[in-house]
């Protein structure tokens, strides 16, 4: 048996070839088998999952219509609020915190009878690229357990890649859905900023964060996006627009479309294996009738530096609320200042402390203009580069990451090396544009991710171009058999 998709399982459920309870039990059994190796989950909600599954079976038996997500086992990143459940952000600061309300995306999914098997591991407060920064455990790559799954949504990507769930939600601030999707060989999408409500997403950097799906294939990505997209009055950055059916974009045709290749993403830092896989992908698109256009994006080289000023600055502000007073961890002190210091020192891990200090520094008097203001000007230039490039083509094609997954512990002592792994993804968040990562090849047995970037609110175009490649190269979308996990 191989990892199944939402659309295939939905068909089996409505045809009554399978019950939701049996399906959920099968995934829970497999999760119990591989979780000691993968360590993707921080919590387990099997009782609630089986109750929901029984309710879905009762609806189907009664002849009532059910959504495509009804009865399908999923997982949710642990920075998305589910009422009554933990929302730790993989941090000691929120170790005992339970969400008092549903995030908007969870309200939407609950209305469709989705099934959550639990909350997934992540880099603490979404700050990291390997899921090694979790305060609780290190998650392992399902393709090779000596390697990282990427981050910060590494738990969600690994759970999908290992077949512990059918699909998952993650969040993306600088590549935190797309990069782990690439490392784990699954599909991951960062929607246009404002397309999916951020209400109930515990903030890292509010102008960059966005919730999105991690799935087995592009069709599933469209199904989940249909479920979570839409205007939300509780989110002031939410975009008010007519709801689209993203499944209508799943057309196997790119003839006449222009695919842009930004030369700046294909420089010396790109590994030979990734370059070869992406070159073959470009040739595949050419053979299908797409026109390949080379574009220049001269300010991309400044994007990573700008991101690592803007994101920590926003984090410094957002994480100020964790002071031991309102909620979360409190470490007693001699006075209130001592309590603040002890609480934040005990509650935050090294990477979170590093980014808070960096963000506070660039916002401080005397340095604001030199760093933060300059970074915001670079952000504008990056957005203009994307606008100009996308005037010349329908989508851009780039690597998702400059290499494949690296070994656990390889970069933990070198934060700059870790940050450089985000070089292909962060500029998309600065510009607020949609992007999707899907498998396009292998290097030494590890998946290579291809990133497609579109204009604002052009998710349909991205899905069409991604779907066409996936249908042309089904060999690249094969997942590991359920129950089989590779290790050294």
How would you characterize this protein structure?
- The protein is of the alpha/beta class and 488 residues long.
- The chain has a domain at 6-257 and 435-477: Amidase signature (AS) enzymes (Alpha-Beta Complex), CATH 3.90.1300.10.
- Helix content is 38%, strand content 12%.
- It contains 15 helices and ten strands.
- Strands 2-1-3-5-4-9-10-8-6-7 form a ten-stranded mixed β-sheet, with helices on both faces.
- Strand 1 (73-77), helix 4 (104-110) and strand 2 form a beta-alpha-beta unit.
- Helix 2 (20-38) packs antiparallel against helix 3, helix 7 packs antiparallel against helix 15 and helix 9 packs across helix 11 (350-363).
- It is globular, with a radius of gyration of 21 Å.
- The two termini are 23 Å apart.
- Residues 480-488 have low confidence and may be disordered.
- It comes from Megasphaera lornae.
- This is Glutamyl-tRNA(Gln) amidotransferase subunit A.
- It catalyses: L-glutamyl-tRNA(Gln) + L-glutamine + ATP + H2O = L-glutaminyl-tRNA(Gln) + L-glutamate + ADP + phosphate + H(+).
Features:
single chain; 488 residues; alpha/beta; Amidase signature (AS) enzymes; 10-stranded mixed beta sheet; 15 helices; 10 strands; disordered C terminus
Second rung of CATH, namely the architecture of the domain at 6-257 and 435-477: Alpha-Beta Complex
CATH homologous superfamily classification of the domain at 6-257 and 435-477: Amidase signature (AS) domain
C-alpha-based Rg, rounded: 21 Å
Q: Which series of helices and strands comes N to C?
A: HHHEHEHEHEEHEHEHHHHEHHEEH
Helix share of residues?
25-40%
Relative strand content: 5-15%
- Annotation, overall tally of beta strands: 10
- Unreliable residue stretches: 480-488
In whole angstroms, the N-to-C terminal distance is 23 Å
Tell me, what is the CATH class of the domain at 6-257 and 435-477? Alpha Beta
CATH topology name of the domain at 6-257 and 435-477, in short, is: Amidase signature (AS) enzymes
The largest pleated sheet is described as:
10 strands, mixed
Mean pLDDT: 95
How many helical stretches?
15
Q: Which of globular, elongated, flat, extended, rod-shaped describes the shape? A: globular
Q: Strands across the major sheet, in which order?
A: 2-1-3-5-4-9-10-8-6-7
The chain-level structural class is alpha/beta
């Amino acid at each position: 048996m191989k990892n199944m998709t939402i659309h295939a399982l939905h068909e089996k459920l409505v045809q009554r070839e399978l019950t939701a309870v049996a399906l959920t039990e099968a995934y829970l059994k497999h999760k119990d088998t591989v979780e000691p190796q993968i360590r993707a989950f921080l919590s387990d909600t099997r009782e609630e999952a089986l109750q929901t599954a029984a309710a879905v079976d009762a609806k189907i038996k009664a002849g009532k219509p059910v959504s495509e997500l009804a009865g399908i086992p999923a997982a949710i990143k642990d920075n998305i609020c589910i009422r009554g459940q933990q929302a730790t952000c993989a941090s000691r600061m929120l170790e005992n915190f339970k969400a008092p309300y549903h995030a908007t995306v969870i309200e939407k999914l609950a209305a469709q009878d989705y099934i959550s098997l639990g909350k997934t591991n992540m880099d603490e407060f979404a700050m990291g690229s390997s899921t090694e920064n979790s305060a609780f455990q290190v998650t392992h790559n399902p393709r090779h357990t000596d390697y990282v799954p990427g981050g910060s949504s590494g738990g969600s990507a690994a759970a999908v890649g290992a077949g512990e769930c059918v699909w998952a939600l993650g969040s993306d601030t600088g590549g935190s859905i797309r990069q782990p999707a690439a490392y784990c060989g699954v599909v991951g999408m960062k929607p246009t900023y404002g397309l999916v409500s951020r209400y109930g997403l515990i903030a890292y950097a509010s102008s960059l964060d966005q919730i999105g799906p991690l799935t087995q294939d592009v069709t599933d990505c469209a199904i989940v996006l249909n479920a979570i997209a839409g205007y939300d009055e509780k989110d002031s950055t939410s975009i008010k627009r007519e709801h689209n059916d993203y499944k209508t974009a799943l057309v196997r045709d790119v003839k006449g479309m222009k695919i842009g290749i930004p030369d700046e993403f294909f420089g010396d830092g790109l590994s030979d294996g990734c370059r070869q896989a992406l070159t073959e992908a470009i040739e595949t698109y050419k053979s299908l009738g797409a026109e390949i256009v080379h574009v220049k994006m001269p300010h991309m080289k400044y994007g990573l530096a700008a991101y690592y000023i803007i994101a920590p600055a926003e984090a410094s502000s957002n994480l100020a609320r964790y002071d031991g007073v309102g909620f979360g961890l409190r470490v007693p002190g001699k006075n209130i200042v001592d309590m603040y210091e002890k609480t934040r020192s005990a509650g935050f891990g090294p990477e979170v402390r590093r980014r808070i200090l960096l963000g506070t520094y660039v916002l401080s008097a005397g340095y604001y203009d030199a760093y933060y203001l300059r970074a915001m000007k670079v952000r504008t230039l990056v957005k203009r580069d994307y606008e100009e490039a996308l005037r010349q083509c329908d989508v851009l094609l780039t690597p998702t990451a400059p290499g494949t997954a690296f070994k656990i512990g390889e970069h933990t002592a070198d934060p700059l090396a870790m940050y450089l792994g985000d070089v292909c993804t962060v500029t998309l968040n600065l510009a607020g544009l949609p992007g999707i990562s899907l498998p396009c090849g292998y290097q030494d047995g590890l998946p290579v991710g291809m990133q497609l970037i579109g204009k604002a609110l052009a998710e349909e175009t991205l899905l069409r171009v991604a779907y066409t490649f996936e249908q042309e190269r089904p060999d690249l979308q094969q997942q590991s058999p359920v129950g089989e996990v590779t290790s050294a």
